[in-house]
Amino acid sequence: MAEFDDFVYPYHLLEEQESHHHQQSRRGSTSEKQLDAKTLRRLAQNREAARKSRLRKKGLFLGGCGGAVGNISSGAAIFDMEYSRWLEDDQRHMSELRTGLHAHLSDSDLRVIVDGYISHYDEIFRLKGVAAKSDVFHLITGMWSTPAERCFLWMGGFRPSELIKMLISQLDPLTEQQVMGIYSLQHSSTQAEEALSQGLEQLQQSLIDTIAGGPVIDGMQQMAVALAKLANLESFVRQADNLRQQTLHQLPRILTVRQAARCFLVIGEYYARLRALSSLWSSRPRE
């Protein structure tokens, strides 16, 4: 986060320039004033570039998130680094899935690759569990993900029922038994999501009532109660991640090995495209 001085400094320069303008106005020209204004803009731009350079060296400037984050917690910073490594590993797993499908590997060999990808997702849920204890707000707001991904976040991750809905059209042909299994999984996921969403809404309303209610003199006591209630956020994120993890484990039990491999490849490619979309959006021409 930029320090207050970073914003004050250009105005300080402006005051000096205005004083200089007054002194030179009796003998200066309009062209000199225009030159001073250009110089001022260059100085401000140079200072801003230097500020961002310092933040990058400190690891505080996250270009993918659209700005500088100066007050990120240590737990959140560690998770972001681990998540970056996880994304790199994700590319390797996707390549193995793609190669295995194209090479027409035996079911047993392909099963090893699919199980490896499931374990890969188990790892991110483990990392998120650790991060939730340190900074649950970082997870639930999706600050670790790209802007496009954040548009679809539900309690710090994907909504299982929506993921299943997206997969159904990608996994044809399915047997009647598989269709029933998929829709049953989607239905149970939807019910669990609704229960968690209602619980979170109740927590939010309870926080509003706690913070807004009572006399001002009891403000510190209100904050203490509110902090205790906020601790429940970790439980909601953990339960949502458990639902996501269970969904990913259930899919291979319904699908064939090749369908499961295709399923996880579709998931990986979908999120890779969302991240690519964010990059294109960030680098789009602006007027």
From TrEMBL:
Coiled coil: none annotated. This is DOG1 domain-containing protein. Residues 17-38 are annotated as: Disordered. Pfam families: DOG1 (PF14144). InterPro entries: bZIP (IPR004827), TGA_domain (IPR025422). Keywords: Activator, DNA-binding, Nucleus, Transcription, Transcription regulation. It is found in: Nucleus. Gene3D superfamilies: 1.20.5.170. GO terms for cellular component: nucleus. It comes from Corchorus olitorius. Residues 29-38 have a biased composition (Basic and acidic residues). The keyword Isomerase does not apply. One of its GO terms (biological process) is DNA-templated transcription. Residues 76-284 form the DOG1 domain. It comes from the Eukaryota. The keyword Glycoprotein does not apply. The lineage of its organism: Eukaryota, Viridiplantae, Streptophyta, Embryophyta, Tracheophyta.
